[in-house]
Amino acid sequence: MPPAPTRIAAAQPSLVPLDSIKGRGTATAMPHRFEQREREQYDDGWGSLDQEAAEEHLPPATEVIEEYAKKIVTSNQSPDISFDYSINPYRGCEHGCVYCFARPTHSYLNLSPGLDFETRIVAKVNAAERLRETLAGSRYEPRSLVLGTATDAYQPIERKLGITRRIVEVLAETSHPFSVVTKSSGIERELDLIAPMAAQGLVSVYLSITTLDNELARILEPRAAAPARRLRTIQALASAGVPVGVSVSPIIPFINEPELERILEAAHAAGASSAFSIPIRLPWEVNPLFQDWLQRHFPDRADRVMARIRDMRGGKDNDARFGTRFTGEGVWAQLMQARFQRAVRKLGLRNKRRSVQLALFKPPRKPSAQGDLF
């Protein structure tokens, strides 16, 4: 019989926390929940452990894995998400946000939700072609679409590969409405495409800003744009007539939660006209990764942070139930939501999604079986 899969338990306070890796959110390539083998270090007498220790201190490089996707548009089946379709040009994300709820998706690739998620990036190189085929289908109906829900479509590798750019070109050509949530200033490179679309009510952009503190941002989301740079991106988008909002997500008690009102004020001053906020979620392997991060960077308040998270999650580290996973429950969740609502009312920010303009959509021409010969 094969050994039972490795159990991924919540991280316990460590006497000697792992050293941080500069520029990376996690410090370990922790096993995923489908792992069939357990590994342990063994000294063979030839200095192998010393060699492994030296190699582990080398900064891990980013590896791009090319994938030819069979499908690029995913239909939403969740009752508590307000959009119908999503497109993710990549799997994994080099930004390295330790709290990213999408980390466990790397487990399905037999890769670690830890370092692999932020260093082994799957690039869907034929994404634009697949999108064109989907939009040209006779049964396709345009609906609300979000670009980058389980990855950041404008993570650093996009500058080289341009996969997201080609997707946006297809959306612009067909006048298909879409929204983007990103932590990157790279969205500014698309202004030539999205500004004309915005004038037709086809585009909205949300910049995710979790903190205004550069030091906190450096360890929380190490390869994302600096907070001030994201504020300048909000300003650039707003100046170009693109409806832009701010996502203050995730809210982490005693870490970035004290900044909630200041972030909203700074985003509003930069030109944001809407906002939303979600408390931190710790699904599957995100839980031990996040708790390890807390012990490394905030050992003085790690227990207090987790206690408050459990207060908002029915006594558990995570609550995946529809209806509460994006809001939390209990006194502290209600207090957080009240603070957010009071701030957005004071600033005049919208906290509801804009209506989607569908009437302008025009399907692309179906590719000819013999090519465009005539």
UniProtKB/TrEMBL annotation:
Matches recorded under InterPro entries: Elp3/MiaA/NifB-like_rSAM, MJ0683-like, rSAM, rSAM_sf
Alphabetical list of Pfam families matching this protein: Radical_SAM
Source domain of life: Bacteria
CDD domains: Radical_SAM
Ranges of compositional bias, category Basic and acidic residues: 32-41
Region (Disordered): 20-41
Species per Swiss-Prot/TrEMBL record: Roseateles saccharophilus (Pseudomonas saccharophila)
UniProt keywords, alphabetically: Iron, Iron-sulfur, Metal-binding
Gene3D superfamilies: 3.80.30.30
Name by which UniProt lists this protein: DNA repair photolyase
Alphabetical list of NCBIfam families matching this protein: rSAM_PA0069 (NF033668)
Domain Radical SAM core: 79-316
